[in-house]
Specification:
The protein is of the alpha+beta class. The protein is built from seven helices and 25 strands. Strands 1, 2, 9, 14, 15, 17, 18, 19, 23 and 25 form a ten-stranded mixed β-sheet that branches. The longest helix is centred in the middle third of the chain and has 24 residues, at about 185-205. The radius of gyration is 21 Å and the shape is globular.
Length: about 425
């Protein structure tokens, strides 16, 4: 994979597809779901493709080929319904169904919820079809089990979680080092037990969210006080020439940044680990490479931060020499992005990264074998880049999500 150095502190990685899938990076999966009977999809990508196919088939059976899309609401402060709607619109178009803003007789809207019982954790996606009167015509459901590497990544982004999983993921990989000393049955039982620890920690971060302040000014946060990964939001107020770190508030266990309309912001990410990381940055579940002109780079959607260093993500990635600023806006015109909810979420997810000739981490080898106020597109940022080759892992090490909202006195659309 080639990663591009934007400056001394700004870096981005472009990964070219490998011939084998050993180090393949999961596609950006922005979710939804299902078939009339509830089934389990292996990934969130599968779920949204299945949902689009079933909605399109139902419409065709009824002699219709267009539909309107409503909101997809999530639990509590989850805001990735914006991404669900965008992905569903794209897949419906692939299936030959036209999505229109007005004029269609039927509307699709839905929700997603996280559920945990004694043995499993799932995300249940619901999509319902309504006529003009609001009468429900049909419903679609799908369950995505929280156990696959890719589903853990996607669900963390979908629900906007703040959680460290690196120690738990390493413990899963450690089991394989003693595989020659255990029977296949014992090995399987150990893997299931260790994997359940990962799932349980993910579930706790949903039901009992928490995070840690990492400096006296309360501008740098991480999932815990011992985390190797930290995040700051740098804000430039309207009319100000400089970016300054903004203090983060504790909103019931959720990190919260008091961004205002017309603020421009950046994300500063700290990697204190002994290894390089790739960082996927998303806004309401939408990857920061969504405007990328190169399809391979867009698919990868990751920024590169070397070991023991700091990186700054300044905006939406377009090309090696062009970014577009992250700007908070309440404007009603199209920004090239889906409409947002009242609460927005910025999520940074951390993964292993390594160079050519380096041994991949053991956990990656194992993974292969298993508000109306929204962030919009601001001014262009131009700079020259240089590149070299490296690779990204698939296993989520850590996730940090920061929420923001509009002030009550803003005239929202």
């Amino acid at each position: 994979m080639t990663h591009i150095h934007l400056s001394s502190v700004q870096r981005i990685t472009i990964r070219f597809k490998l011939r084998a899938s050993l180090f393949g990076l999961a596609l950006l999966a922005v979710l939804a779901g299902a078939v009339p009977a509830s089934v389990e999809a292996s990934t969130l990508d599968d779920a949204i493709v299945s949902l689009a196919g079933n909605v399109s088939d139902y419409l065709k059976e009824k002699g219709r080929n267009e539909v309107m899309l409503g909101n997809f609401d999530g639990p509590g402060s989850a805001t990735a319904g914006r991404a669900i709607r965008a992905a569903l619109k794209e897949q419906l178009s692939v299936k030959g169904t036209k999505v229109v803003p007005l004029g269609a007789s039927w509307t699709v809207r839905g929700s997603f919820v996280f559920q945990k019982d004694q043995s499993d954790a799932i995300v249940l996606i619901k999509a319902d079809l309504f006529d003009k009167t609001g009468k429900e015509l049909s419903g679609f459901r799908e369950k995505v089990k929280v156990q696959e590497v890719s589903s853990i990544e996607d669900i963390s982004r979908l629900l906007g979680l703040t959680v460290d999983l690196d120690k738990e993921q390493d413990a899963v990989a450690e089991v394989t080092k003693t595989s020659d000393q255990a029977s296949p049955r014992d090995l399987a039982d150990q893997l299931i037990s260790k994997q359940s620890t990962v799932t349980n920690k993910l579930a706790v971060s949903v039901s009992d969210p928490t995070f840690a302040f990492r400096d006296d000014r309360k501008t740098a946060i991480s999932p815990s006080a011992s985390s190797k990964f930290r995040v700051e939001v740098l804000v430039r107020r309207e009319g100000s020439p400089r970016f300054e770190p903004i203090a983060i508030e504790d909103a019931g266990g959720f990190p919260f940044a008091s961004l205002q309309a017309n603020d421009t912001y950046k994300l500063r990410v700290h990697n204190d680990a002994d290894h390089a990381v790739g960082v996927k940055l998303s806004v309401d579940g939408i990857n920061s490479f969504c405007l990328c002109l190169d399809p391979v780079t867009k698919e990868i959607g990751s920024w590169y931060v070397p070991a023991k260093s700091v990186g700054v993500v300044s905006g939406w990635y377009v090309s090696p020499t062009l970014l577009k600023e992250f700007v908070v806006t309440a404007k009603g015109e199209s920004l090239g992005l889906p409409d947002a909810a009242d609460i927005g979420t910025v999520t940074a997810q951390f993964f292993h990264a390594w160079g050519e000739g380096e041994q991949p981490p053991a956990v990656e080898l194992l993974a292969t074998n298993r508000g109306q106020l929204r962030t919009g597109i601001g001014r262009d940022i131009t700079r020259q880049a240089r590149s070299h080759r490296s690779f990204f892992g698939k296993t989520l090490l850590s996730s940090v999500s920061i929420r923001y909202s509009n002030p009550d006195d803003l005239p929202l659309q």
